[in-house]
């Protein structure tokens, strides 16, 4: 199954593109979480919100998602094949772009897809990509704080 999640906002351009690909038979067995989007897919199963996305993540062979940090880390933690696309229609259109580019440099556990128009290319890339397990960086905050406090004495 291909699962698409857009979070709490609107990402109609992504939903339209996935629906178009499904209509052309390029992708199959698609479930889309629409959030507050207005476009209703004609060729995919869909819902706006659910109490939990766990069952969809578990069933998914590949997840396509917006660039919300909570969603990104949830998918990486689950070790799912993952294509991330920034939602450039948000209030700060660069926010998800910069964040996802940085994450893609940090891990090959996901594929960064810069534009919705590049989705088909990114899906082809995902077929050959060797997704790795994301290893979160070790937190050194306690040591940094302790060092800072020692200097203050």
What can be said about this structure in brief?
The protein has 153 residues and is α/β, with parallel strands linked by helices. The protein contains 6 helices and 6 strands, in the order βαββαβαβαβαα.
* CATH architecture annotation name: 3-Layer(aba) Sandwich
Task: Give the helix proportion (percent range).
Answer: 25-40%
Low-confidence regions:
none
User: How would the global form be characterised?
Assistant: elongated
The secondary-structure class comes to alpha/beta
CATH superfamily: Glycogen Phosphorylase B
> Topology as H/E string?
EHEEHEHEHEHH
On the 0 to 100 scale, the average pLDDT is: 93
Helix and strand arrangement:
Layout: E1 2-5, H1 12-23, E2 30-33, E3 45-47, H2 54-59, E4 62-65, H3 69-77, E5 81-84, H4 95-106, E6 111-112, H5 119-128, H6 141-152
Parallel strand pairs: 1-2, 1-4, 2-3, 4-5, 5-6
How would you sum up this structure, described in words?
- The chain has helices spanning 12-23, 54-59, 69-77, 95-106, 119-128, 141-152, and strands at residues 2-5, 30-33, 45-47, 62-65, 81-84, 111-112.
- With 153 residues, the chain is α/β, with parallel strands linked by helices.
- It has one domain: Glycogen Phosphorylase B (Rossmann fold).
- A six-stranded parallel sheet has the order 3-2-1-4-5-6, with helices on both faces.
- Strand 5, helix 4 and strand 6 form a beta-alpha-beta unit.
- The model has no long low-confidence stretch (mean pLDDT 93).
Q: Which key terms come to mind for this protein?
A:
elongated; 153 residues; 6 strands; 6 helices; Rossmann fold; six-stranded parallel beta sheet; alpha/beta; single chain
């Amino acid at each position: 199954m291909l699962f698409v999640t857009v979070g709490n906002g609107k990402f109609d351009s992504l939903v339209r593109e996935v629906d178009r690909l499904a209509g052309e038979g390029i992708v199959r067995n698609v479930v889309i979480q629409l959030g507050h989007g207005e476009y209703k897919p004609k060729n995919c199963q869909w819902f706006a919100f659910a109490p939990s996305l766990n069952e969809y993540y578990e069933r998914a062979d590949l997840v396509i998602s917006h660039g919300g940090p909570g969603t990104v880390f949830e998918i990486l933690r689950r070790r799912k094949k993952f294509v991330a696309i920034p939602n450039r229609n948000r209030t700060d259109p660069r926010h998800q772009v910069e964040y996802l580019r940085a994450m893609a440099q940090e891990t090959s556990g996901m594929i960064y897809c810069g534009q919705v128009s590049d989705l088909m290319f990114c899906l082809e890339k995902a077929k050959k990509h060797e997704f790795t397990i994301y290893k979160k960086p070790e937190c050194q905050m306690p040591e940094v704080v302790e060092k800072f406090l020692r200097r203050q004495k």
